[in-house]
Design a protein that fits this description.
Blueprint lengths: L2 H11 L9 H8 L4 H17 L12 E4 L8 E4 L12 H11 L2 H4 L4 H13 L3
Antiparallel strand pairs: 1-2
Length: 128
């Protein structure tokens, strides 16, 4: 658990009447995501914008799409690149790829960022 998670836990514990609840229950009662989910939410939003063409120059070649109608669920799966170093797990692309590929088709097929964000919220809430 990093420092920000500790701060979030302490801050939500200070709310009167929620002291007895677990950290996850406090976040659920307040309608908040954990900081880890918020980071993932922001990362997936950036991937959506990239794939829709928002970052053409800055992110050129960042992701390789594996478009195939034969894929289950999400028709816009991303392919992993090969890296030799163990540090690859920290790269943005590697951090979000498996999460993106598990999103339902209706989330990734959203026509606008606003629709994507609403559907992503729902999908992340269902993760538990």
């Amino acid at each position: 658990m990093d420092l920000l998670d500790q701060v979030q836990r302490k801050a939500t514990k200070m709310i009167r009447g929620m002291e007895h609840l677990s950290s996850e229950d406090r976040l659920r009662e307040l309608g908040l995501f954990s900081l880890e989910k918020r980071r993932l939410w922001g990362d997936l939003r950036a991937v959506f914008q990239y794939l829709k063409g928002a970052y053409k120059k800055a992110g050129e070649g960042l992701f390789t799409r594996a478009c195939s109608e034969r894929t289950r669920d999400n028709g816009f799966k991303l392919k992993e690149s090969r890296f030799r170093l163990d540090i690859r797990k920290k790269f943005f692309t590697m951090r979000v790829m498996s999460h993106w590929n598990r999103l339902p088709r209706e989330v990734v097929d959203a026509l606008s960022l606003e629709v994507f964000k609403a559907r992503l919220d729902e999908a992340l809430c269902n993760l538990g």
